Amino acid sequence: MLLLHVSDTHLGANKPSKLKEREVDFYDAFNEVMEIAIREHVDAVIHAGDFFDEPKPTPQVYLYAYRALRKLKEHGIDFLVIAGQHDQPRASQLPPLRVLGEMGLLKLLAQDYPETHIVKIRGEELGIVAIPYISPVKIEEYLKNIRVPDTNKRILIAHLLLKELSIPSAHASLAELSADKYNYVALGDYHLRYETLYRGVPIAYTGSTEALDVLEALSDKYTALVDLSNREVRVNWVKLSSPRKWIRIEARNFKDFFDNISKIVFEKYSKPPILYVTLKGKQSDLEIRRVRDYVNNMISEKKILIGRVEVEKEEESGVVTKSVLFEGTSSFTSTLDQVVYSVLGDKEIAEIVLTLLKSSENREDVKLIVNRILEDERIVNKIRRLVSTR
Ligand SMILES: [Mn+2]
To answer: What is the pLDDT of residues 265-278, one digit of tens each?
Structure first.
């Protein structure tokens, strides 16, 4: 039995900068994973949560998800999924994965609480304990009542943060999950690839399929082929080629920046990369302008999709502050956010206007926001200035 493990596809995400191109990047990565599943003739795909980026996907997100899953279905490959926190709407709303389940495109194993399943995959039984996202304060109670199936082959699929990752707000340890009762543990929620063994049992986070921020982008993206045919489970990592590359340059001055950027061969990228430049230490206006002009030029030549320049300063107190000096894009498409921002020229005011625009159907929300603006003298003064310069 060959499974493909994937997680955190975040379909519908368009970070950074809310670009259409970025939204498509997330679909591309998901499609690549589906193609790998078909090419490798896997028996089923298991998705460890955060299928969607938001619990209220837009029609185009449904459309792309539908198309990718339909292709898999045509090849007779099952798609088994659990809900991550991004797939969990407020209690009264219909979970989006239920919609796809109802359409026969996937099997939703667990939405709000752990469930035990015995699934028949090409005539063979697979026992699955499925743990969707549960808040760290409540999970202990749920873990007490987990029923491990007594099938020959068993896997655990869970959307949670392991205590072994030693990051804040972790959910449970491998011991608390009784990870040794399974043949394989497929995890989601942590966006970087992570692999370990627990009493001989392979444990893996595949990580996100596309990067949601610069830190996630520093390592390559993967999916895992999990071979359960033999007693010894084999995990083979397949590197994804579609994710857009991010380039991060830290420089002291223009020359430093130039030396670094000159080494990069932009022709090798199939998609124009995202460039983040951090200028460190005290900067003269001239140095900053040279870097900014260079990045701007790369944008107009369409060598990069997004160019961002930030300055990192260490205050006398030792506190390091970062401020974004410039962010530009070679994208043709513009979102509502970008239009509002370019008209107003002030990020803070743009955000307030956008919040108002997006919540304008709700009278109470609008009232609340307007009152908050009027109470904040600084914002009111900013608006006055914006109006007077027009
Ligand atoms: Mn996630």
So the answer is: 999 999 999 999 99
Distance 188 CA to ligand 1 centre (A): 7
- Strand arrangement of the beta sheet that strand 44-47 belongs to: 107-110, 78-82, 44-47, 2-6, 222-227, 234-239
Strand partners, 155: 128, 184
The residue whose two tokens read 């951090």 is 278
The sign one gets for the Cα dihedral 151, 181, 174, 231 is negative
Q: How far is the CA of 52 from the centre of ligand 1 (A)?
A: 9
SS (H, E, C) 303-314: CCCEEEEEEEEE
Residues in the chain: 390
Question: Could you give the CA distance from residue 311 to residue 281 in angstroms, rounded to a whole number?
Answer: 8
What is the per-residue pLDDT for 351?
81
pLDDT in tens, 48-85: 999 999 999 999 999 999 999 999 999 999 999 999 99
Distance 208 CA to ligand 1 centre (A): 7
Separation of 135 CA from ligand 1 center, angstroms? 14
**Residue 355 near residue 369 (C-beta atoms within 8 A):** yes
Which backbone phi and psi does 205 adopt, to 5 degrees?
Answer: -105, 125
Could you tell me the distance, in angstroms and rounded to a whole number, from the CA of residue 270 to the centre of ligand 1?
25
> pLDDT value at position 344?
75
- Say if residues 349 and 379 touch (Cβ distance below 8 Å): yes
Q: What DSSP line would sit under 224-282, residue for residue? A: EEEE-SSSS-EEEEEE-S-SPPEEEEEESSHHHHHHHHHT--GGG-SSPPEEEEEEES-
**How far does residue 162's CA lie from ligand 1's centre (Å)?**
14
Between the CA of 187 and the centroid of ligand 1 the distance, in Å, is: 11
Question: What is the pTM (predicted TM-score) of this model?
Answer: 0.86
Q: What share of the chain is helix, strand, coil (3-state, %, to 5)?
A: 35, 25, 40
Distances (CA, A) of 77 to 44, 74, 106: 5, 8, 10
Per-residue pLDDT at 313? 85
Instruction: Decide: helix, strand or coil at residue 105.
Output: coil
Residue 165 confidence (pLDDT) above 90 = yes
Mean pLDDT for 146-167 is 96
CA gap 109, 117 in Å, rounded: 7
